[in-house]
C-alpha cells in the first residue's frame, strides 16, 4: 500500500545542512497498523510527513496504492492527499468552529452538498463516540475528545491511509488507551491502513502489527511486533523494550555477584502455549529443579506471550538436556549465563 524507496531528507538553512532521513526503504501493507518508534530527533516526524509529502524528500520515491507521489504536479498531489488522513499530537482543530464544523471542514473544502455533509458528520460523530457533543467548541472538550474530533475529521473523506503523528503523546495513560482502542476499532471496521509515529513502546505493543525503529535517520530494526519486542537486536530497540518492564539483564547484573556458577535461561512463550503447563511438565520430566528470577505474562496486540528468567539448579549436562526438551516443545530458550 505504501512504499518508500531510498527516501532521504536534508534540511538546509543558513546554519548548515541537517540530514534527517538517510535512504529509508519501507513497505506498509494494506490494512495493517504500522508503527515507527524513535527517540527525539531520530527523524520520525520527518518520515511520516514524507508519506503525504508535507515534507518533500530530497531523494527517493514515495508510492501510495500504485501512485508515485513524488512525481505528481501540485494539483494532482492535492487530489491524492484526500485519500490520506492525518491526525496530530496537538489536534490542530479550528478553535472558533464547533465539533460538527471541524469534522465538516474537509468535506466543505471538496464542495460536497450540505445534505451529504450533514449525514456524514452524524455518521462520523457516532463512529468516534462523540454523539451529543456536535455543537460544542474545542475549548469545551477534554484532550481525548479533541483527538476524537481530529480522527473524525481525518476520516471524513474516506481515506485509504491514516497517518498519526504522536497522536497520544499529549494524553494521560487512560485516555491514551481509549484513543488506541478507537484506532484499532477503526482499522478493523474500515480496513484502513494506519501508520503512526511514537516514542512509547506501549503504543506499539497495544495496536501495531509491525514496527520500524528509527535512529539518527536510519531504520535500525524492522519486523513484526512479536519478533522485535521479544528479540530486540539493536541497542535502541532494547532501550524501548526496557521502558515496559525491568530488563532481565538488569536483574542479572544486580544479582551477579552471588550468581557465579549458576545456569540462567530466558524462556519465551508465544500464543496459546502461554496458557499451557509446558514448563512444569518439561521440568518434571527432566527432573530439573529451577527458580523463577523474573517473569512477565502479557499481550502483544492480540497475541499472548510470557517471558521467564529461570535459574537451573543442576550441572551443565542436566541443564542442557532440560533446555533441549523445552526447545523440542516449541519454546524459545536463550541461555543467558552458562555456569
Ligand atoms: N524544518 C527543519 N529545519 C531544520 N532541521 C530540521 C527541521 N525539521 C527537523 N529538523 C531536524 O531533523 C532531525 C529529525 O527531526 P524530526 O523532527 O523528524 O525528529 P523526531 O524523531 O520527530 O523528533 P521529535 O520526537 O523531537 O519531534 C532533527 O535533527 C531536527 O533537528
Automatic annotation (TrEMBL):
Gene3D superfamilies, per the entry: 3.30.70.260, P-loop containing nucleotide triphosphate hydrolases (3.40.50.300)
Keyword Cell division: no
GO terms for MF: ATP binding; ATP hydrolysis activity
InterPro entries reported for this sequence: AAA+_ATPase, ABC_transporter-like_ATP-bd, ABC_transporter-like_CS, ACT-like_dom_sf, MetN_ABC, MetN_ABC_transporter-like, NIL_domain, P-loop_NTPase
Record keyword Cell inner membrane present: no
GO terms under biological process: amino acid transport
Pfam family, one: NIL
Protein's recorded name: MetN
Taxonomic lineage of the native organism: Bacteria, Bacillati, Bacillota, Bacilli, Bacillales
Amino acid at each position: 500500500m505504501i512504499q518508500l524507496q531510498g527516501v532521504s531528507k536534508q534540511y538546509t538553512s543558513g546554519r548548515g545542512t541537517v540530514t534527517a532521513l538517510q535512504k529509508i526503504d519501507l513497505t506498509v501493507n494494506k490494512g495493517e497498523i504500522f508503527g515507527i518508534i524513535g527517540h527525539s530527533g531520530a527523524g520520525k516526524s520527518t518520515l511520516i510527513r514524507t508519506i503525504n509529502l508535507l515534507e518533500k524528500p530530497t531523494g527517493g520515491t514515495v508510492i501510495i496504492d500504485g501512485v508515485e507521489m513524488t512525481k505528481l504536479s501540485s494539483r494532482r498531489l492535492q487530489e491524492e492527499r484526500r485519500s490520506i488522513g492525518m491526525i496530530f499530537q496537538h489536534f490542530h482543530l479550528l478553535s472558533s468552529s464547533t465539533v460538527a464544523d471541524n469534522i465538516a471542514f474537509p468535506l466543505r473544502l471538496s464542495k460536497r452538498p450540505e445534505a451529504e455533509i450533514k449525514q456524514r458528520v452524524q455518521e462520523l460523530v457516532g463512529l468516534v463516540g462523540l454523539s451529543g457533543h456536535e455543537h460544542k467548541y474545542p475549548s469545551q472538550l477534554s484532550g481525548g475528545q479533541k483527538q476524537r474530533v481530529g480522527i473524525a475529521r481525518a476520516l471524513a473523506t474516506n481515506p485509504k491511509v491514516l497517518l498519526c503523528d504522536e497522536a497520544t503523546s499529549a494524553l494521560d495513560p487512560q485516555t491514551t488507551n481509549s484513543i488506541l482502542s478507537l484506532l484499532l476499532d477503526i482499522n478493523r471496521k474500515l480496513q484502513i491502513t494506519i501508520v503512526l509515529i511514537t516514542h512509547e513502546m506501549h503504543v506499539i505493543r497495544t495496536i501495531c502489527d509491525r514496527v520500524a525503529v528509527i535512529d539518527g535517520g536510519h531504520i535500525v530494526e524492522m519486523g513484526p511486533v512479536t519478533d522485535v519486542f521479544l528479540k530486540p537486536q539493536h541497542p535502541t530497540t532494547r532501550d524501548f523494550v526496557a521502558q515496559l518492564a525491568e530488563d532481565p539483564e538488569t536483574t542479572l547484573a544486580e544479582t551477579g555477584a552471588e550468581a557465579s556458577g549458576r545456569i540462567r535461561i530466558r524462556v519465551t512463550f508465544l500464543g496459546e502455549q502461554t496458557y499451557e503447563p509446558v514448563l512444569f511438565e518439561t521440568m518434571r520430566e527432566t527432573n530439573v529443579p529451577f527458580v523463577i528470577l523474573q517473569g512477565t505474562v502479557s499481550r502483544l496486540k492480540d497475541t499472548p506471550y510470557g517471558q521467564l528468567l529461570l535459574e537451573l539448579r543442576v550441572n551443565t549436562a542436566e541443564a542442557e538436556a532440560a533446555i533441549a526438551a523445552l526447545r523440542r516443545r516449541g519454546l524459545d530458550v536463550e541461555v543467558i549465563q552458562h555456569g
